[in-house]
C-alpha cells in the first residue's frame, strides 16, 4: 500500500489526527480524484507505516522532499514586505479563503510551524476565531516566555478592532504607538493593542469582516508578518484558490 490512499481506505481521518505533530504538506486524491490537503511529517509517516503498513517508497519526489524537510515550504526564504499602505492592503486583501474550518487552521498552523522551525529564534503561533475560540496554538523551539503570549493577545486585539494586519497599522503610524493611541482615543486601553507586524486577518469569500486572526510572535516584526503572508499563499495555492484570486486582482 502506498501513501496514495483515499479517506475510505485509511478508515477515516481521525487516525491521522492522532499521530500528527511537526508537519509538512502532502496532497492526496479522494475516491472522486479531487485533491485534498493532509498534513504529514516524518514521524507521522513512521507511525502510519507501523499501524497501517503504509510504504512511502513510491511517493513522488517533490512530495517526498516536503516530507523529509527539504521541500519548498520549509526552505523558501522570506521576502521583505512592502511599507506602502496601498501595496500592503492589496496583498492582504488578495489572501481570501473559500472556507476556514478547524481543519484548515490545523493545516495552516502546521505549515507555519514547519517554516518557523528553520529559524533560530523561539516563536509562538496562534490562530483564533474572531470570537476568540482557539483553533491552533503552539510554541516553536525552547525559549518562549509569557511575554510572547502577551504580544499575541495585543496583536490579535489590533486586528479584530481595526480589521487590518498589524503590519498595515504599523506603517500607517510609522511605528508611533503614541500617535496610534491618540488617534483612536485609546487612553488607558492603549496597552491592550500592538502595532507591530505579525497579526493577520483571515477573510472568507462572501463573509463580511474578519473571520479569524493568525498571529506569529518571536521574529523581527516584518518577518512575523511575511511568514504568515507567504504561508497563507502556499496554503491557498495548494487548494487551488490563490492563483485564481491573484488573477482577479
Automatic annotation (TrEMBL):
GO cellular component: TRC complex
Signal peptide: none
Domain of life: Eukaryota
Gene Ontology BP annotations: post-translational protein targeting to endoplasmic reticulum membrane
UniProt protein name: DUF967 domain protein
Lineage, top ranks: Eukaryota, Fungi, Dikarya, Ascomycota, Pezizomycotina
InterPro entries, alphabetized: PduO/GlcC-like, PduO/GlcC-like_sf, YBR137W-like
